[in-house]
């Protein structure tokens, strides 16, 4: 039978440094670096010994992602070449394996090769370099399963069906007939259905019909099933499992429908990059990003800007019920004919890799924000529809009246804020669909970016700017909820990210996220999380540092509280408490508008006259008449404690884990202006990513540690003022 084994250990980098994959060729500083340091060739080498059990078998190495222009040799023989940095490829080793020691060499080039997407012009994100995803050793029978595409025709029917399209790999062209056995199991491992089919050529199909008691893949209950296909031939037996779900997803002119129910899509864009490590963080970090988007922010969709992302991330989206808009690599630029041909291949590779993910509901087959190119985009759409007729296509634009070759007109709408560039139109959150498309009849319409570079906001920015940042996100959300012509909105973006010198704030960072690069929330993050059902989680976040001199004029009014509570009560000093409900007048369409205390609710001279003594405040949240949340705001916050919190207390023996460090006041609130340094040390089977000595930003910082084996890992953080805090994580 098939075996697929991790092949991440025992590599050497540049002929000298032992490394474990995933690996970034150059560990960059947090900011103010020269991106040219990784734009050059690099070499990875692995020595391994032939296993006698491999005799008569097919041996391949599968690379999940190498950036970029990878060339692979085995014992000096070329065995694979792959220009694309975002999709997997395999190197067939069988013809050149030696019975003893073998040498596998991977040569890559981090240069921005103008012949392949996304390169050829300026790109507003970094692509780093390295073998930055997992590598696997695959051992199969000589004739084996190459791919399985799972389809669920008419998933809303009472009796459901499954069709599996199977491709057979026969490298030696033996032409051996065989039998395919198929088995569908549910999440508990119970067999749902079985079938079989005869194999006489390179392709075959399995049909399952009359399936009863099947659960649909829903956002709040994403039921997953597994199809296991087994091939039996005279050359041996091979088996492959594919996870899938039963769901119907459709973009229509009047909205998006999941399993027949209309759903407003609310999401953000995600870059897969991290501080210091670039792209090279493994399973736990990828899964945690999906959890942040779904569980912490309460989103129902993410766009993989601007390239196919980690299989671990997509797997977790499947498990969590987070919809995905996945797109090919690129940013504005379209190259020559050869470049476009490679882009079409990117469409092919992306879809073939990810066609079984129920979370993916639309393929992005147009270069982000590029101009019309009829023949090019007619071909990307043709290939997408040929490979997968179960999903619609989309193409993201940033200008109006574009030719629509896709099924969904996707638009980056940055109209909010454009008046600051000298526009003469009044402030509005979104443009009307017809004005954008220029099409006389209604078409499915999705807004794929807004905010972002129109109002970059740092986690340490002054409170008044952060309030405006929050308000801009709320304005777009409110407009989307109130506009039936908009299927949804996907904001730019989830997390701050490193970028080229030509973009960002001069520090090689685009501060466009509602969270910083360490995935710590800015106030704007709570504009999203506060729209959640309070039965799932209570959210109450005052958009203030509670300081009399932080804002331009002083005071804290208007005081916005992002919440899904029914009422908010404010108490301060000896004044009578004030209780308000959500502001449905200012935000009439939001499920949960913020509560806003302003001058209408205070007598002259109350709360925030310069020169008055500042007093403590307490904000309480009420839901269904019960007090469900409380937040203490100190007039005199003093640096009191240091918290060191890992995302988990246990990780895999070669995985990565985020640790967040926060300086806190007497009430446990983060100290937004505390910027003193802390020293970080890691002992045990792990190493720290990033520098040992770092300054806090807005009272916080973070880092990732990567396990190098099993055992106890001790993290110690030391502050001259706040002392030393230690914690343990176990790698297993």
Task: Explain how this protein is built.
The protein is mainly β and 732 residues long. The protein is 12% helix and 36% strand. It contains seven helices and 46 strands. Strands 27-26-25-24-23-22-21-28 form an eight-stranded parallel β-sheet. The protein has a six-stranded antiparallel β-sheet with strand order 3-2-4-9-6-7, with no helix packed on it. A hairpin with a 5-residue loop joins strand 33 and strand 34. The longest helix has 20 residues, at 463-482. The radius of gyration is 27 Å and the shape is globular. It starts with a strand and ends with a strand.
SSE blueprint:
Layout: E1 3-6, E2 11-13, E3 17-19, E4 41-49, E5 58-63, E6 70-74, E7 77-82, E8 89-92, E9 101-109, E10 135-140, E11 144-151, E12 160-169, E13 178-185, E14 191-199, E15 203-211, E16 225-233, E17 236-244, E18 249-252, E19 255-258, E20 261-263, E21 265-269, H1 283-296, E22 301-304, H2 311-320, E23 323-327, H3 337-354, E24 360-364, H4 374-387, E25 392-397, E26 408-412, H5 433-437, E27 445-449, H6 463-482, E28 488-491, E29 497-498, E30 509-510, H7 525-529, E31 540-542, E32 559-563, E33 567-572, E34 578-580, E35 595-597, E36 617-623, E37 626-633, E38 641-646, E39 650-651, E40 656-664, E41 677-683, E42 686-689, E43 693-695, E44 700-707, E45 711-719, E46 723-731
Parallel strand pairs: 21-22, 21-28, 22-23, 23-24, 24-25, 25-26, 26-27, 39-46
Antiparallel strand pairs: 1-10, 2-3, 2-4, 4-9, 5-8, 5-10, 6-7, 6-9, 11-12, 12-15, 13-14, 13-16, 16-17, 18-19, 19-20, 29-30, 31-32, 32-35, 33-34, 33-36, 36-37, 38-40, 40-44, 41-43, 41-45, 42-44, 45-46
Helix pairs in contact: 1-2, 3-4
